[in-house]
Specification:
- The protein folds into two domains: 104 residues, no CATH class; 99 residues, no CATH class.
- It is built from seven helices and ten strands.
Length: 241
């Protein structure tokens, strides 16, 4: 949020995450009733490169649905052919790995280095915009994040998942209710979300899911609350869900 006049509409999440109609079967649309909030032109324009980066990162998650793979094969490949620099920078430090799904099926894939500050910047903007959309007022405070689509690479011999036990509990909580229909978002195969009930201290959280497989949990901490302990905050915010 800034003090400039809101002269444009900002899509939440970014519009580029939703497939173009030309990449879908006839008479199919995944851009129904997209969420928009008022934004100044400067901030809305400035975030377009970050939006594109987020699209690349999310669509490269092998846990996602077929919509994400379709986005990669169409929209992202067109962007790569026009301007290959972004994709080349993402895969510059890639490593060949074997991924095993919950059924024990192994597949060869690439592990790439993610720009976590940039990803969190995208989620911070998105969370605040969703908060405004939900409550019709800006959020003043800090946002804390945990998500399940990145890992921490420790050495060439070992890969450590980036979430601890408490953060993992929060993400499993998100996955559990996304199996049901208790969420918002007209284009659920691309994006859906739910605001949690306030916890005992009145703190609010939002859970988001992209492409059916990339889950994000965000806690809103008002000014004055300690934002340094991410895990305890997340644990405290899921107790009453």
């Amino acid at each position: 949020m800034c003090d400039s006049c809101a002269t444009t509409d900002e899509h939440v999440p970014p519009k580029c995450l939703f497939p173009d109609e030309k990449d879908l079967p006839p008479r199919v649309s995944l851009r129904e009733e997209l969420i928009k909030v008022p934004s100044c032109k400067a901030h809305n324009t400035a975030k377009s490169r970050d939006d594109e980066y987020l699209l690349y990162v999310l669509c490269m998650n092998i846990a996602n649905n077929s919509i994400a793979f379709q986005q990669f094969a169409t929209k992202i490949m067109r962007a790569y052919n026009r301007r290959p620099a972004l994709m080349k920078s993402i895969v510059a430090e890639s490593k060949k790995v074997v991924a095993v799904d919950s059924n024990g099926t192994a597949m060869n894939t690439l592990m790439v280095k993610a720009d976590m500050p940039r990803i969190h910047k995208c989620f911070n903007q998105m969370a605040r915009a969703l908060y405004y959309h939900e409550f019709r007022k800006p959020f003043i405070g800090h946002c804390r994040f945990v998500h399940d689509f990145t890992i921490r690479y420790k050495s060439k011999f070992k890969v450590v998942v980036s979430t601890g036990e408490k953060e993992h509990s929060a993400i499993e909580h998100v996955k559990a209710y996304f199996k049901d229909l208790d969420h918002k978002g007209k284009n659920a195969s691309v994006f859906r979300y739910r605001f949690e009930e306030p916890d005992d201290q009145g703190r609010i959280a939002v859970s988001m899911q992209f492409y059916g497989g990339s889950n994000v949990f965000i806690v809103f901490l008002p000014i004055g609350e300690n934002s340094g302990d991410n895990s305890s905050t997340l644990q405290g915010s899921v107790r009453r869900a």
